[in-house]
Specification:
Layout lengths: L10 E5 L2 E12 L2 E13 L2 E2 L3 E5 L6 H24 L10 H24 L8 H25 L4 H7 L4
Antiparallel strand pairs: 1-2, 2-3, 3-4, 3-5
Helix pairs in contact: 2-3
Length: about 170
């Protein structure tokens, strides 16, 4: 459907300072007796971003409100997905509510540390938390290689290095 829509001919909707060109379709959609489908193109200086497809079953909401709700919801969803995929949030094996709460707090602290690190290093091109994790992993790997190299230069036996690393 996107190939038949020219974003330049669509209505402009502004949400949180961003402009979108929006196509709205209202009718039966799949199993929904009534739904509002939005095809939204974020306006950029050099054209349009790839469209976002949004759906709402609340027929009282206008396009601006639907986009605003999704923008808030999207941050929550991506953070939760990140918690699960990169910080093992879905891997906890505890049962008491106190243990679950503690586990969540540890994961949340790790996430906030990564966000703070990302904010402080934004000039280095670390735009996402995933990039921050890659960067920190590289620093850790470099430190490990330097540690091993330094010990080998001092003629420390490999078995002794394993003991120091607690992997003997």
């Amino acid at each position: 459907m996107k190939k038949y829509i020219d974003p330049n001919t669509l209505d402009t909707v502004t949400v949180d300072g961003k402009n979108y060109k929006v196509y709205t379709y209202e009718d039966n959609v799949a199993k929904f007796p009534y739904a509002k489908v939005l095809i939204c193109y974020e306006v950029k200086e050099d054209g349009f971003k790839s469209p976002l497809y949004l759906i709402s079953t609340d027929n009282l909401l206008d396009a601006q409100t639907i986009i605003k709700y999704y923008s808030y919801r999207w941050n929550i969803e991506t953070s939760y997905k990140y918690f699960k995929s990169n910080l093992a949030f879905d891997k906890y094996r505890v049962r008491s509510s106190l243990s679950i709460e503690r586990y969540f707090l540890i994961v949340f602290l790790a996430y906030n540390f990564l966000e703070l690190f990302r904010f402080n290093c934004r000039k280095q091109g670390l735009e996402t938390i995933g990039k921050v994790q890659e960067h920190l992993n590289c620093l850790t790997a470099k430190a490990l290689v330097c540690f091993i190299y330094g010990n080998l230069k001092q003629n420390v036996a490999l078995e002794d290095i394993f003991v120091k690393l607690k992997i003997a």
